[in-house]
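ok so I'm stuck.
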Amino acid sequence: MISLFCVRGRGKSLKTQILQCGRHQLDISRAQVMGILNVTPDSFSDGGKLYADTELSLDKAVTGAAEMVAAGASIIDVGGESTRPGAEPVSLAEELDRVIPVVERLNRELDVVVSVDTSSPEVITEAAAVGGGLINDVRALGKPGALAAAAATDLPVCLMHMQGSPATMQNAPTYDDVLEDVTAFLSQRVRDCEQAGIAKDRLILDPGFGFGKTVEHNLRLLNNLDALHALGVPLLIGTSRKSMIDHVLHRPVDKRLAGSLATVAVAVMQGAQILRVHDVAETVDVVRMTEAIRNEAVVTP
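replied:
not stuck anymore, here's the structure
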């Protein structure tokens, strides 16, 4: 793993940083776009669109991922368990059945980093075995066995902050100070990972927008990403189509593109390295334009 990380707040970009994601190298000295591929029937924005009747269509999944890659996504994030507010967990067998065949097909047919959105150690292990390149865990490797499973893969891991569980997280979340509390939690998880054998240069942090947070909490976090950059770990930002946009703009899920893109621009201006989104083509344009403004230079892709 080559890591030349340095904090990139407002201002010009600095050294190149390469993240080794299985057989792929990901240059996160430039912001990278992660396309969301939910292989679930019940995700908040796009649940069920990859299903034919009640069966997941592998062909639809591959086609959807290929379209996002063509639009500029360098990572495809495959998730088999909905983590929307109020969501109930799925069985391990169901998650494996949804996720592993998709990861295997994408790794075989597309030249892209395949990320696996999971908290289950068994899914982590199986996904790595069929070509997964990144682990993206909303529970920050908190499930029993997840730390050891992730360490054994030698893959990068994204640790997210969540207060509570998906079933309860939006039931009146409270903090003494959301910025301090989220930073403290993620800092401790970085230490836990290092003790478990996961080097710091394999880690990515996600403040967890919408996961046990009010709109005010989300806005404070988004406006203060420098506090998280101070931990010395790359940042993943996932605000796409989330309810914080509805609270500000009063838009339904399918009308939140403009609000989502505004949050992307703010995050990139503050040096976020990975943007997890539904609308890849539009996001890529916003990312590249914002980077040009921030760096005061045009960089050829």
